[in-house]
Amino acid sequence: MGGGCGKGAASSFRSSGMIGWIHMRQRNQTSAPLRSDISEILHAWHSALAAARASEDADLYACAVALAMESLDQYTTVQDLIGAYCAPDDALKARVLALCDEGEVHLESGIVMGSACALQFRQIMEKAIA
């Protein structure tokens, strides 16, 4: 297995929220992700977005994801976006955690981050195609 997020990206965020999201990525951030890793990361993002949309808290997720996306605007390539997802800087981690812990309802940080990455990925692809 190469570096990057590696195996388990899709299931890690679901089972343990932000702790799994950060721990798994810090453990494997030594090199660029392999093709199979990229496929798994894209699947994880898609799954996160589907989970957010299916949640009874979908409106809250939509707000948190929109705010998280503001932090992803600086990532204009797929490689940079994957890098931010696999090895988020302290400011990005703190923002996602804050978005998930504010209010009466606790949101899953992995779902917020994965959804934000999925939507940012879509914007990057739309710009590339245009």
Give a written overview of the molecule.
The chain contains 6 helices and no strands. The protein has helices at residues 9-27, 35-54, 58-72, 78-86, 90-101, 109-129. Helix 1 (9-27) crosses helix 6, helix 3 (58-72) runs antiparallel to helix 5 and helix 3 (58-72) crosses helix 6 (109-129). It starts with 8 loop residues before the first helix and ends with a helix. Residues 7-20 and 22-28 have low confidence and may be disordered.
Summarize the structure.
The protein has helices at 9-27, 35-54, 58-72, 78-86, 90-101, 109-129.
Q: Helices and strands in order, then pairings?
A:
Elements: H1 9-27, H2 35-54, H3 58-72, H4 78-86, H5 90-101, H6 109-129
The radius of gyration is 13 Å
Strand residues, percent: under 5%
Q: What is the average per-residue confidence, as pLDDT, rounded to a whole number?
A: 81
The count of helical stretches stands at 6
- Overall geometry: globular
Number of strands: 0
Label this structure with key terms.
130 residues, mainly alpha
